[in-house]
Write a structure and sequence with these properties.
Layout: H1 2-15, H2 22-28, H3 33-99
Length: 100
């Protein structure tokens, strides 16, 4: 009974990718085929995760570029207007000084 429980525990460790010494495997007759299948599926999942991360990075870069472009356009649009307002204020101040 205890041997059966130990084998189940070690099989679960093996399925999680934990390395079990060969002599213990041989004593309890533990097979590693499940862990191999699992590791292959993990590799596929990892590939999908990497691809989705790359896609997210591209989307974020596009959003960032779009934001920078909008910011630049906004600065271009507001820049001359601010200069014109400052010039008008200067001329008004100058005119007020002359009147005084």
């Amino acid at each position: 009974m205890q041997n059966k429980v130990t084998r189940k525990i070690l099989e679960s460790y093996s399925n999680q990718g934990i390395i079990i010494p060969v002599d213990i495997k041989n004593k309890l007759n533990i097979n590693n085929t499940k862990s191999r299948r699992k590791s292959n599926s993990n590799k596929e999942i990892e590939k999908v995760n990497i691809q989705s991360n790359l896609n997210r990075k591209k989307e974020l870069n596009q959003i960032s570029d779009s934001y920078e472009n909008q910011k630049t356009l906004l600065n271009q649009n507001t820049g001359p207007n601010n200069n014109e307002i400052e010039k008008e204020n200067e001329s008004l101040n100058f005119n007020q000084e002359i009147e005084n």
